[in-house]
């Protein structure tokens, strides 16, 4: 019953969840179903590894839904990777987020689909080399959980790294005459322009408070190691919570980033940081389409519901 119905259904649902993350936005399934689609990715692989007999142990006369799903996966493996590489090539031939704008497809979500297909194929191959089927005995529970977590974090990191690397390399190959600025913007988008904006409007010994390492800032402006790579030798300050606990302790001349976040989400949930009222000596707002200053205000009170501009700098 488990291998005939439950596991095939889980595999199909995982493919569906990955597709939803691709066409809505990465993380959509986690938001609405509370469990990340990549968790189902890891769970499916762990169940195949621990609960399904190897091919040599299975009765060839008892061909069931699981066998059909795995056979179909082998057929789809190459087309799925081909489709992904085609869309990567299309993106590299145009501009950042072209595929999203033209086809409503998120490339960082799309890569998870062929990765899941490949992982299923390889897991089946690994099982065929094992002497006998694994069973989820108490002593194997640790390994079962380890497989799920390894698959979850691997696909999360590999999908992002592979997608970025492929796009960047193809763009450089297809645009040999592009400037350094154009290549950096293609790879990092508005985040790169914001880093240039911050560099241009602060001294090298400046102290800068960056957003917390939370969604939706964690992937870009909230990643202190990434921001440091662009803004060194400036001193970066980061707090764990969503608010800056003691503004007075920062001292005059300290800068605070104004960032709307780096991932798609509802404005009321995550856009607009810092989320508190700040009496500022000066606030500098960045132009939406460049790294230039669009507006500067002296002796200004910044409020947490200030959504006039996406990026900027507050100077205490």
Question: What descriptors fit this protein?
Answer:
316 residues; alpha/beta; six-stranded mixed sheet; elongated
Tell me what you see in this structure.
With 316 residues, this protein is an alpha/beta fold. The chain has 2 domains: 2-174, no CATH class; 190-315. Helices cover 52% and strands 10% of the residues. The chain is built from 12 helices and 6 strands. Helix 3 runs parallel beside helix 7 (112-128) and helix 3 crosses helix 8. The longest helix has 34 residues, at 141-174. The radius of gyration is 24 Å and the shape is elongated.
Concise account of the structure shown:
With 316 residues, this protein is α/β, with parallel strands linked by helices. Helices cover 52% and strands 10% of the residues. The protein is built from 12 helices and 6 strands.
User: Which sequence of strands runs across the widest sheet?
Assistant: 2-1-3-6-4-5
Radius of gyration: 24 Å
The end-to-end distance, rounded to whole angstroms, is: 65 Å
Number of helical regions: 12
Mean pLDDT: 82
> How many extended strands?
6
N to C succession of SSEs: HHHHHHHHHHEHEEHEEE
Layout of helices and strands:
Blueprint: H1 2-23, H2 28-33, H3 37-51, H4 65-93, H5 98-103, H6 107-110, H7 112-128, H8 141-174, H9 180-188, H10 190-200, E1 207-209, H11 224-231, E2 235-237, E3 255-258, H12 267-270, E4 278-286, E5 293-302, E6 312-315
Parallel strand pairs: 1-2, 1-3
Antiparallel strand pairs: 3-6, 4-5, 4-6
Helix pairs in contact: 1-3, 3-7, 3-8, 4-7, 4-8, 9-10
């Amino acid at each position: 019953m488990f291998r005939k119905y439950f596991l095939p259904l889980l595999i199909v649902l995982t493919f569906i969840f990955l597709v939803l993350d691709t066409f809505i936005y990465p993380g959509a399934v986690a938001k609405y179903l509370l469990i990340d689609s990549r968790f189902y990715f890891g769970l499916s692989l762990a169940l195949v590894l621990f609960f399904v007999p190897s091919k040599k142990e299975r009765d060839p006369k008892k061909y069931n839904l699981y066998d059909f799903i795995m056979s179909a996966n082998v057929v789809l493996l190459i087309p799925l990777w081909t489709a992904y590489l085609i869309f990567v090539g299309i993106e590299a031939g145009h501009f950042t987020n072209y595929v999203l704008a033209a086809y409503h497809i998120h490339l960082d979500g799309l890569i998870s689909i062929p990765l899941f297909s490949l992982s299923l194929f390889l897991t089946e191959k690994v099982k065929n080399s094992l002497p006998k089927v694994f069973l989820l005995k108490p002593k194997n529970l640790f390994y079962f959980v380890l497989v799920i977590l390894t698959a979850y974090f691997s696909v999360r990191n590999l999908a992002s790294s592979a997608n970025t690397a492929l796009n960047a390399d193809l763009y450089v190959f297809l645009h040999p005459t592009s400037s350094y600025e154009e290549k950096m913007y293609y790879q990092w988008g508005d985040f790169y322009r914001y880093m240039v904006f911050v560099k241009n409007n602060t001294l090298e010994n400046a102290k800068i408070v960056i957003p917390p390492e939370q969604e939706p800032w964690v992937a870009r402006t909230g990643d202190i190691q990434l921001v440091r790579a662009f803004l060194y030798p400036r001193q970066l300050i980061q707090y764990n919570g969503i608010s800056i606990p003691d503004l007075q302790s920062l001292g005059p001349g300290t800068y605070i980033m104004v960032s709307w976040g780096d991932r798609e989400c509802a404005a009321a949930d995550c856009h607009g940081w810092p989320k508190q009222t700040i009496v500022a000596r000066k606030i500098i707002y960045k132009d939406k389409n460049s790294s230039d200053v669009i507006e500067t205000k002296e002796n200004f009170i910044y409020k947490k519901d200030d959504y006039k501009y996406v990026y900027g700098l507050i100077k205490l």
